[in-house]
Amino acid sequence: SEKYIKNIINSSLDMIIASDENSLITEFNNAAQITFGFASFEVIGKPVSMLYANNGEYDKVTFQINSIGLFTGEILNKKKSGELFTSFLTASKIFSEEGELIGFVGVSRDVTEVHKAQEKLRQSEELYRDLFENTTELIQSVSSEGKILYVNSAWKEALEYSDQEVNDKNIVAFIHP
Prior knowledge:
The strands form two sheets. A five-stranded antiparallel beta sheet has the order 2-1-5-4-3. Helix content is 39%, strand content 27%. By secondary structure, it is an alpha+beta fold.
């Protein structure tokens, strides 16, 4: 049973890290080893705080766990190389059958690439918006039903309409009979 659970933990794509009641690492699965760059023997028995970018990050997590029993959110972690990365962490207390605190467990996933992709998308949208807003060409986007979805500044300026006059209108309202 214990071996079966250990195999499940090690086959997870998410990092799973457990610590005892003194916050010393007791479990460090394969995903954690790959992401952090530590072999499990390098971290077992060491303070879990070593995996955080700074004491503020660690304090934020422990404060919430101690206050409400769990933490869910993004944190900044530190790899063996010193490189920082953002992970989405869910951490909670572990209790014995008798209800006694025996440790903590955290399951997390590196979301650095997600953040990079979101930033690229934001920059792309900003470039697109800038291009459409600063061109002298009249640009409009219309739904299949003819509802105006977007008009650029040049369109509003040339046709002398405000945002309020264009919003929720059908393109037919702006076409000469």
